[in-house]
Amino acid sequence: MYKVSGSSGGGLMIKCEHPQYKTNPKYICKESDGCSERKNPGVQGEWMENGDVSLYDDTRAGVLMVFFRELKAADAGTYRCGVKVSDYTESFTELQLSVRHVNITCQIPEEHEVHFCKEDDNHICQTISSSKVREMSGSSERNEERVVTVSISNVSVRDAGVYWCGAETRDTYLTFISLNTKVQLNLITKVGVSRVSGSSGGRLMIKCEHPQYKTNPKYICKESDGCSERKNSGVQGEWMENGDVSLYDDTRAGVLMVFFRELKAADAGTYRCGVKVSDYTESFTELQLSVRHDEKYPNSVNESAHIGKEVNITCQIPEEHKFHFCKEDDNHTYNHICQTIISSKGTEMSGSSERNEERVVTVSISNVSVRDAGVYWCGAETRDTYLTFISLNTKIQLNLIMPPVVRHEGESAEIICSYDSIYKSKPKSLCKGKCSTRDRNPLSETVREEKETKTGRLTLNDDVTAGVFTGTITGLTAEDAGKYWCAVTLETELNYLYTHLIVIMNEELNLTKYEGDDVSIQCKHHDEDQKRFCKAHEASMCVKDGVSLETIRDDRFSFSDEASTGVFTVNITDLREEDSGIYWCGAHVIIKVNLEVNKGVSGRITVSCVCVTLLLMGASVLLLYKLGYIKTRDQHPSPDRTEMSSGEASHAACDYENIKDARRHSVPDTEETALYSTVTHPTDSSDPNDPLYSTVQLPTNPSDGLLYASVHFQKHEESLSDAKVTFSNEEVYCNYTTVSPHMSLN
């Protein structure tokens, strides 16, 4: 970029050099008309006239020569002197052309001498001796007046002011001057040019610096409308809204801050950010604003932090730019003014983009308090000679979390909201659900300082001394459960703090299963709720620890969500005895689940068999006792005998012993079953084929299980294959016992 100047009425030659593109087409155009009219010679090696300029394309040196034949004030402006590199690429040099003098025209009567003067501070018109007066032909219809042009060369700030021109008449003893045309000459100085860019939908802060004119009025205007609408703050030291921008005149630093609240494509263009130096002089910096359309920006992020804890906020900014982090001022919620955060600590991290064109910056806010809640922005800051601009492209909504409130159905719940002292006189309210959207569900009443409001089961109370307002809900129901926001009403409503009200229903779910079984448990929730399922003695333990479905790592647990029905299902396979216990299931509405897992069928069979074995062993001992009793009676034979081996029958002497079955039956209302032991005496003590046997009769009810017992007595160990007991006058020996239990699985 180069600055070029020339004198009004004179000629100006500009040589634009493109040595690497000697034969390529070259051009010059003016940016004020969007370079829509590109002037070029049309032919090479010849001077060609194009409007007020002449052009020559020197293909041997690669130079485009542009000659302004007679400079005028209208020729001043920004030009591009460029070359077409290829079908799709161009290269140009920017030229800023200024014309150094002013032409002032006056009409005076014919045959009168022109008089031209400038007012001093006392409004006395002093003759301008150094001015060059050049008369032009008369322009009135009757030719009774002529036009005089006054040219002031090498214009400086001293030349600004009020001029008068008129006719001077001399008489013998008198000269009188009639001043009939007042000319106010305002001198505007452009001190520099800066290029500014921002993302569509993002925020843009521009700081125009005028340190030598701290208290002077400042403004910004757009050149496309001739700077006819000059936006200024109106007052000093306060943010003021003016159309789509907000302005702040910082008289201490001599800075005008211009804040574009939401950039649009229509905001692109050339601006003047200026200051009024005196009544007739101004100084400005030219801003060329471009608006980018990037799907990546603006980026919106929601962060939540617990009071007293630390929160980390990450942002991406272009490389080689200074990082800027600011917070929207709650007192200017409507204007969304973003104030720089001085106390925040930024920690830079390595670049994370694929092309490494951006770097990641982390901002850490420690010991979070209610003052820290709100909207933050981060972006890139760029400094120029007379200007600083900040492009804010990432919005962060920081919300604070209070511990959840857990109560049982029918009880009362208190939601306690702390707030900053600057809000003590502001109305406050509770809001349930989606409080920042159109389908928000606010609780109807608000409360002001030192007052209490009550609506139905809800009571709001504001304690400005403690800096808290409390919402009390009595007679809790399932409909009361949910997410609650604490809100302060400013220009708009500020939701800054939230908690969860958890309602435990009085109804319980009792489940009894056996080891190895599967179970499915259905729990209620809403789409936005965090789903909870955990094992604990108290529901508050689950909520406090933040136990949710995502924290369970057991493969036997699986989950299915049916959002349309408001139900999610927890499936547990291959149940174990240690799975027994109390579970809490739901989201904001929680039910208690009592799960009992008993031992499996195989375990019950083992226990039953052990019991039966012990029982039969006792029966065997009893039989041995009876055998001793029968032997004694055999010494006194009875006439009633039965000959088992020969087929002759006689009455057998039988003794019965009832053995109670103390087992726990699986079939209810079943009476105890007696086991009968029958011992039959042999009819012939000398007959080895006449056995002594014991029979245990089967239960009449099959569900009681089938029990078999056989007891065989042998006299000698070598006769183990003979399952008989033979009586003689010798001693009876018990050689072995066999108990075979069988159990029905019904």
UniProtKB/TrEMBL annotation:
<feature type="transmembrane region" description="Helical">
    <location>
        <begin position="605"/>
        <end position="625"/>
    </location>
</feature>
<protein>
    <recommendedName>
        <fullName>Ig-like domain-containing protein</fullName>
    </recommendedName>
</protein>
<dbReference type="InterPro" id="IPR013783">
    <property type="entry name" value="Ig-like_fold"/>
</dbReference>
<feature type="domain" description="Ig-like">
    <location>
        <begin position="221"/>
        <end position="290"/>
    </location>
</feature>
<dbReference type="InterPro" id="IPR050671">
    <property type="entry name" value="CD300_family_receptors"/>
</dbReference>
<dbReference type="GO" id="GO:0004888">
    <property type="term" value="F:transmembrane signaling receptor activity"/>
</dbReference>
<keyword id="KW-0472">Membrane</keyword>
<dbReference type="InterPro" id="IPR013106">
    <property type="entry name" value="Ig_V-set"/>
</dbReference>
<feature type="domain" description="Ig-like">
    <location>
        <begin position="29"/>
        <end position="98"/>
    </location>
</feature>
<dbReference type="InterPro" id="IPR003599">
    <property type="entry name" value="Ig_sub"/>
</dbReference>
<keyword id="KW-0812">Transmembrane</keyword>
<dbReference type="GO" id="GO:0005886">
    <property type="term" value="C:plasma membrane"/>
</dbReference>
<dbReference type="InterPro" id="IPR007110">
    <property type="entry name" value="Ig-like_dom"/>
</dbReference>
<dbReference type="InterPro" id="IPR036179">
    <property type="entry name" value="Ig-like_dom_sf"/>
</dbReference>
<dbReference type="Pfam" id="PF07686">
    <property type="entry name" value="V-set"/>
</dbReference>
<keyword id="KW-1133">Transmembrane helix</keyword>
